[in-house]
Each structure stands twice: as structure tokens, then as C-alpha cells.
């Protein structure tokens, strides 16, 4: 099934072959095109419903073309970290960034576990430095890190000695006691467990009492400040002064300056501050970034990444190394459709075979110089227009990076790819670091535009990755076993919807901007099929419109007694049936091959409809409000809860009073109204062709897709759709019925 297409020593690039999948891809494409041709041929015999169906199906066909192109050449990388020591004399340094933004939505104990797991990875500790950005400016988070570093001093040697795989203590201690007979191990295990429990209880208590805590001494910087109005706070929590490889890596806490009238650009802004502060302090040529909930699940991850970063003959091959975003304690059968397993396996690997995976915001190793805007070396003349930095940096070019001389010196160093600067004493650099963490530092510079994490989209990750690909870099996906990092996926309806809405918003912001992939293909070095892959994801929000129209179509047809499908006896019906069946069989095949259940397939199908018609629509609305300058878009932080069990009803869809649930409820009520009118003989007399079995079956299918909403109509508390939402939706659907019946009557 797989053959190696190149075999440098540290990794293999393997082309995956899925002939059956390709056959399905093409069959579905051919059927879709036949459907469009059929619709066009018979358009004059039919009414509005036919035209609308044609428009929607054209959109679906376009999306399918993008999907097929993205999936067509799947590729996988295999890495061999055990060969690193033969090939590489000295492992390079890596700066690690962890972002956290809100101690309530992101409990410090989670952030702390992520940090501890990072401090304990299998890599020389003197080559690592871990920087934590706290946008919440929370003394609790700082306190937790201080305590965590003390614990990590015991934990890291314990993990390394006993070769523990899961180095996030909350996960390690929540699973069974490992079978290891040695009494020495048992003793140490019990001791570590006690130590961890003590750490956890200290952090929990601090959580509750944080307000009362006396903010003096080391905590004085946190007194009398507000979350969104404070100077920068930078603290070296732990310094590996002697540069010893089996001590702990450096640990630095950063809360950048925030002032009310200064835009802070959310996560992208935080990442740029991390980049600059780390540039002054350790300036490692590689940077790993993680969200606060993504703990390390494979202690060899840095070595795996190094195989890809150091092992390629041309560094252009690996501008960045992305690890897939996987989750722990996922709900059974993925009821919210947010675990993306099948996505990773087929679309994800497919894009790897083009110009490389998208940057996903977490679990990614970047070359520092790539973030500083450089182009791959062999891009040549064209590079002049693609990058702000070329040759030796002149005074003029240095404005790009802002006014700090020390930082500019470090950036020049990183761009020239020189060996590390001489080690520095971190506390001496704090003052200079404050300057680059200030909220005014970026004015008049290229940060967020030409260098660093890109501003202007709630999905700064996709935008930043796109910029890198546009400069001609490729990226690689690293998929070691066990999985590299694991994080939290939302476990309740409203949170999942808000996340989907943010993604749809951010993606559409990119599509509507001058940084969109079409322009990048025309004017820069984004490959054509990579552009199609980017379009595939960027149009998420826009897909809501044909999805909603198509979902309303069956109800519309039943109410107005018109049709958008051929009759059962017409041969054209076979196109529809064949399309439906091949799509279903293909979907099932993908899920079963990935080791998932039929139930998971169905849940994901259903949630794709629910997300598209609700969350994605709101994404479109917020982008239009932004374009009209009515309101800006915001990054609403996803709540991370670590609970693995809260009663028997896990996975049952939950609602709140947010308007985000109005479209779905309205679509459902419309289908129900249509049934009542259809079976109650209240349909209008037909104009050309009456509605038939096809429309009824489609309407039933829509109701099945919105089954969580059907249950929501009758559910109580968080399981029920709030009355206000039901009222709004009833009003909307009644107006719809009134409107279509009166216009249709007018035509008679
Ligand atoms: O003002 C902010 C807002 C967020 N964050 C951090 O950004 C990360 C991601 O936020 P989260 O709420 O977990 O968003 P998700 O939807 O789970 O994140 C996905 O989508 C984001 C883009 O929308 C990417 O940035 C993330 O890396 C990716 O995991 C977290 O560590 C936050 O602490 C900040 O540091 N500052
Ligand atoms: Mn997250």
C-alpha cells in the first residue's frame, strides 16, 4: 500500500495509496456534474425551487472539487529519532511558548500540567527554555508556575529514570497504577503522587483565595492592577544557570503590557511578545508553541521534530513542523463532531502531499527566521518582493523589528543562522525584555504584517501559515506513535458552537482580505493546489448559505406544492439515488477504516449540518458587521474543562439562550410545519409539478440531522432549547410560510 519515495536518514516520506477512495472521489464528482447538466437542461420546465437547487448544488460541486484536490495525494512522514545521535553532533536549542488567557476558562492546573510535561521531555534541558504568556495577568497563574517548577525538579528525573510516557501528572496519576514490581519504583511512585496531590491542592486553594492573597514580595507586581490595564510583568521562575543538561529548562513568566485603548491582537499579539522576549533571552533557532491545554503525550516529540527540521537536504522542505491536534477523553462517538479524526487521516494527510499542512496554532515547531519573515534560500530574485529581510540588515530594514537595539541584534543573528549567542544571565535582561513586551512597541513596525504572527484574523494560525507558504516554504506533518500532544475539545453545545463560529469568522476574514490565497498564488509562491486547499477551509463560513437554502428547500417545496427533485419514475432519479448512496458508503468506509463507529459517522454528518447552518452563519454575520464597521471581531477563549465524567448524559446536546441556535430551530420548525401542511391537506394547488415522495424523504432527513434540536424542543434545563429561542424561531418560520404562500398564491 505504501512505498518510500525518498529516504534520507532521519525520516521517510511515504506516499499513501487509496485507490478505492479515488474511485469514490471521481464517481461522486461525475454524478454531481451530471446532476448540474440535468438541472440546466430542464430548467425551463421548472420553477424557483429548481433554480435554487441548481445554485446550491453548484456550490456543493465546487466544494467537492476542492475536497478531491486536497485529498488526492496523501503523504505521511516517518521519523527515526533514535538515529539523531549518529547524525547530529549537537542538538539545537528550542524555545517553547505556552499561551494562557483566562484563569477561569483555563484553570491554572491545566496550564501547569502542560508546562510540567514540557519541562520533563527527553531533550537536553540546557537546550530548552519554556516561556509562558499569561494574558489574564493572574497572580494565581504565576504562583502555580512557581510551585510547579519546584515539583518538576522531582518529577522530571522520576519520569526519565522510569521512562514514563505520559509526563503530565494529572493524566499519569489518573490512570491505573503501572505494573512495576520493584519496590523502589513503588516507593517513588507513591512519593510523586503525594507531591502532585499537594501541588494540586495548593493551586486549587490559591484559586479560591487568590483575591485575598497578600500581593507583596514576589507578587507585588500584581497588586493594584486590572486584567486589561497593567504594565508588563516578566519573571524568571527558574533559571538553569549552569547550563546543566539534566537539570530543569529555564521557565519564564510573561504578562505583556495591556492598556485600554491599545489593540492587543489576542493570541497573535501574545505570540509576538513571546517571540521577542525569547529572542532577547535565549534566541533559539527553533520555537515550539502550545495552547495551555495541550500536554505532551510523547516525551520524544522534540527529537521527532528535529528529524524533520535537521534531516531534510533543503531546509525549504520544512519551514515548520506541525503535529496534528488530537484530544484526550473525547466523548464517545464524537457527538459534537469536534475530534477531527477522519479529517486528519484523509484531508490532513492529503494537504501534506501538496505544500504541507496548515499551521494549526498549537503543537508546531517553527524556524525562528521563518517567523522573522525570511524566504527559503533558493527562492532567489523573487524573494525581494516576498520578504522584508534580505542580505545584511540595513538600518532601514531594522525598522521592521522595532526600536530595541538588543532585539534587533538578536534578530539579525537569528536570520543569519549563526550559532547560538553566548549564554546570558536572564535576570539581567528583564528590563530590556519589558521594552519589547510593551503595548506601544509595535507601532510603526512590521510586526503582525510582514513578520511574526499575523494580525487581522481570529484564526491567526491559518493566516500565519499561509504567509509562510506564500513565501515558498513547505511544511511537514509529524505523526509519531504515541500521539505527540493531547488537548481538550469542547464537551457542551454552546462552547462548541462558539468555537466553530470563531473559526468561520477568522477564516472568512482571511478570504476577504488582501492576504487571501488567490492573491498569494498570483503574486507570490503559494502553489495552485495549496491555494485550493486553503480555499477549502476558508469558505467554511460561506458554505452556511447554500447549506441553509438546501435544508429549507424540501419544506419550501412541500408548503408550496412544488418540486426540486425528479419524480420516482423518471430515470434522472437514479443520479440522485446514486449520489446519495455513494456519498453514504464512502463516508462509512472512511470512518470504519479509521477505526470509528457508524454512530460516529452519523454524529459527524449531523454536526456538519448543525455547525454549518448555525455557527458558520454567525461567522458570516460577524465578518459582515466588521466590514460595515459596526463591530470588530473578537477571540472568545474556549472553556477548557477537565472533567471526564459528569453524569450519564454526556454527549447529549446542550443549549443556551444564544441566538446561535435560532437558525437550526427555525429550519426544524419549518420542516414540522411542512409536514402538518402536507399531511393536513393544506398545501397550495401545484403550478407545474407537485411535490412528491422525494421532497418528503428529504424533509425527514433534515429532521434527522437536527435530531438534537428535536430533543431540545422537549428537553429541560440545559438540554432544552430556551423558550425565547423557540419563540423567535416560530416567528421566523411563520413569517416564512406566510411569505412563500402569499407569493405563490400571487403567481397562480
Ligand atoms: O487573547 C488571547 C486569546 C487566546 N489566547 C490563547 O490562545 C490559545 C487558543 O485558544 P482557545 O480558546 O483554546 O481556542 P481553540 O479554538 O481551542 O484554538 C484553536 O484555534 C485557534 C484559532 O482560532 C488557534 O489559535 C489555536 O491554537 C487552536 O488550538 C489558548 O492557549 C489561549 O490561552 C491568548 O493567549 N490570548
Ligand atoms: Mn483549545
From TrEMBL:
Active site annotation, chain numbering: 135, 461
List of residues binding UDP-alpha-D-glucose: 106, 135
Intracellular or extracellular location(s): Endomembrane system
Keyword Membrane carried by entry: yes
GO cellular component entries: endomembrane system; plasma membrane
Any one GO molecular function term: cellulose synthase activity
Cross-referenced Pfam families: Cellulose_synt
Transmembrane helix recorded as keyword: yes
Keyword annotations of the record: Cell wall biogenesis/degradation, Coiled coil, Glycosyltransferase, Membrane, Transferase, Transmembrane, Transmembrane helix
Annotated coiled-coil segments of the chain: 182-209
GO terms for biological process, alphabetical: cell wall organization; cellulose biosynthetic process; plant-type primary cell wall biogenesis
Primary location recorded for the protein, binned into one broad class: membrane
Gene3D superfamilies xref list: Spore Coat Polysaccharide Biosynthesis Protein SpsA, Chain A
Protein name according to UniProt: Cellulose synthase-like protein H1
Lineage: Eukaryota, Viridiplantae, Streptophyta, Embryophyta, Tracheophyta
